[in-house]
Amino acid sequence: MTDRQTAPDFTLPQDGGDPVTLSALRPSPVVLFFYPRDNTSGCTKEAKAFTALQADFEAAGAKVFGISKDDIAAHGKFRAKQELGIPLLSDAEGTTCEDYGVWKEKSMYGKMFWGIVRSTFLIDGDGNIAREWRKVKVDGHAEEVLDAVKAL
């Protein structure tokens, strides 16, 4: 068994609930999916995929959270409009995004800008990163993450 990296701890506000502190969720496994922006096509598809499998994640004992830099009000509107069941956390300051290495320089139509690179982290019950997915392609991703949770 290789040494696993300890997941950076955080406390972030969630839409419609109390702030979430990662270390307080132990010993449950935790899935964190970082996404660029509320109400964009890829982000909506990803959040809906995790919502569709929410009962399966819960049955496996895992808690799932989406994280972006959008504020709590935007998250609330996004969840209501898309009927999302997954709690969304706001990292408005970007500290958690930086701690997880998902805040990167990106390019679109020849223009460079900073943004969140779609990434997912599976954190085991001891608070270590068990698996990470970078530059995620949405199709089939939530199912792959669920399989990894079940394999813990």
TrEMBL record:
Record's keyword terms, sorted: Antioxidant, Disulfide bond, Oxidoreductase, Peroxidase, Redox-active center
Gene3D superfamilies: Glutaredoxin (3.40.30.10)
Pfam families assigned: AhpC-TSA
Domain of life: Bacteria
Enzyme class: oxidoreductase
Thioredoxin domain: residues covered: 1-152
Region (Disordered): 1-20
InterPro entries: AhpC/TSA, Peroxiredoxin_AhpC-typ, Peroxiredoxin_BCP/PrxQ, Thioredoxin-like_sf, Thioredoxin_domain
Catalytic activity: a hydroperoxide + [thioredoxin]-dithiol = an alcohol + [thioredoxin]-disulfide + H2O
EC number of this enzyme: 1.11.1.24
Free-text function comment from the UniProt entry: Thiol-specific peroxidase that catalyzes the reduction of hydrogen peroxide and organic hydroperoxides to water and alcohols, respectively. Plays a role in cell protection against oxidative stress by detoxifying peroxides and as sensor of hydrogen peroxide-mediated signaling events.
Subunit text: Monomer.
Family listed: Belongs to the peroxiredoxin family. BCP/PrxQ subfamily.
Protein name (Swiss-Prot/TrEMBL): thioredoxin-dependent peroxiredoxin
Protein species of origin: Thalassovita aquimarina
